[in-house]
Each structure stands twice: as C-alpha cells, then as structure tokens.
Design a protein that fits this description.
- The protein has 250 residues and is an alpha+beta fold.
C-alpha cells in the first residue's frame, strides 16, 4: 500500500513537471518568434514598389531618394552606366525613360509591342537601349535632342529605333550587352541563345567564335560563360536567373 502511494506521488510529480516544461517552452518559442519578427521589421529597408511608380533608394542608408509615378504598371527597370538615365519596361509592352532625378521624362511612354517587356538594358557606352518583348528585341539609338527648326541641341534625349533583332521562336526573357557595345546575346523561354550585331541587328552565325566573348552583364542563364552553374543531369527549370558582378570576380 505504501509502495503504491509512493509510485502515485512520483508519477504525479513528473506529470506536473512535464506540464510546466511544455508551458514554458511554448512561451519561450512565442517570445522568440515575436523577437525575430520585430527585429526584422525594424531592420527591413523602406518599401518601394514598381507596380505603378519608379523609385530610387540609397541602399546603404536604406532611404528612398526620389520617386516618380509612371503611366502604366512597371515590370523591368534598368539604369545607364553613366548614371543619367533610368529605363522602365511596362506590362503592356511599352517603355519610359527618366532622368536620374526621376523628375524629367527623357522618353515619354512609347509602345512598339503589345505584350509585356521581359528584358531591357542600356549599352555600356550609354548610346543604345535594347527592349525585349514577345519574340523580338527593339534597339534604339540614343542621341542629344535637337530643335527640328534650328538644329540646336536642347535639353533631353532622342530615342530613334534603328532595328529589331529577329530569330527567336519563343518569347525572350533576358539579354546582355558586350563590353564593346557592338553585340547582344538574347535568351528565350525556349532555351534559345542567339547573338546579334549592333547597330545592324543582324543575327550572327558561327557562335563558337564567341566562346571567349566578355559580356558587360550576365542575365542569360545559358551560354558559354555559365556552363559551370548547371548541375549534372539538370534541365532548364533548375536555374531561372543569374547575375555577375561588374568586377567579373563574382
């Protein structure tokens, strides 16, 4: 009788101990969750959306510097190497080019295609702008704006379409300029990689000669320079985006 009472007391003690452990462990987990939640909310940078606006931010100070509302929802955004222009690609196939302060529209909304802009990039010399939509890439020559009457240079830029890169059988999704601004490589969702000469926009053949070509950016997931990123036996869905540093180190 006495032994059974002792067993009952010990069992009750351990059950109570388990209850307190569960209680406090759940509270600790809850407090840990709230701590990390508020920590991340405090540390997160200011929110900026490109759904209907274009914003420039100081990534070091985590502070928005300028904002401009564009006419249509935006999907892509890029800036020129000289830092004077910002190009925005829209969902409806058009594009807009803004000055670096986002106050001046160097190229008001312009639309050549009906489907969304999937890729947009300035050339390294800031003299060309390539806009990819549907199965095509339209190339524009950038020049100082002149008065049509007097011929004098006025404030702003002119964007003259000089050609279209044609050859893809599926929609383009990425493009890169060469360091010399004389070539572009264009990838599509069908895993086609084509090369074009600029400013003629002619398609190049004999691409093996371009194996050692240095590209200013690397957003195409396929190509000579990114063969090593693909795991063995992988397919096209394993890697969906890629980028390299301007120093070519990373």
């Amino acid at each position: 009788m006495k032994s059974s009472a002792i067993v009952l007391i010990i069992r009750t003690f351990f059950q109570t101990l388990d209850t307190y452990c569960i209680f406090f462990s759940s509270r600790i987990r809850l407090l840990t969750f709230y701590f990390f939640f508020f920590f991340l909310m405090i540390r997160r940078p200011p929110r900026s959306t490109l759904s209907s606006s274009s914003a420039a931010s100081d990534v070091y100070k985590r502070q928005e510097l300028a904002r401009d509302f564009v006419d249509y929802p935006a999907l892509k955004c890029t800036f020129s190497v000289d830092g004077t222009m910002v190009a925005v690609g829209h969902k409806n196939g058009g594009f807009t080019v803004l000055a670096d302060d986002l106050d001046t529209k160097l190229q008001p909304f312009r639309r050549e295609r009906k489907e969304r802009v999937c890729a947009i990039a300035f050339s390294p010399n800031s003299l060309y702008l390539a806009v990819g939509s549907e199965k095509y890439v339209d190339v524009y020559k950038i020049a100082p704006k002149t008065n049509p009457t007097t011929g004098e240079v006025v404030e702003g830029k002119s964007f003259t379409k000089i050609g279209t890169c044609v050859g893809h059988t599926s929609k383009v999704n990425a493009l890169d300029w060469s360091i010399s601004s004389t070539l572009i490589q264009v990838a599509s969702i069908g895993y086609e990689l084509l090369y074009f000469d600029i400013p003629t926009c002619d398609r190049l053949t004999g691409v093996r000669a371009l194996a050692d070509q240095i590209w200013f950016t690397q957003t195409c997931t396929i190509g000579w320079s990114v063969q090593g990123i693909w795991p063995r036996y992988s397919d096209g869905t394993d890697i969906n985006s890629v980028a390299k540093s301007r120093s070519d180190k990373y």
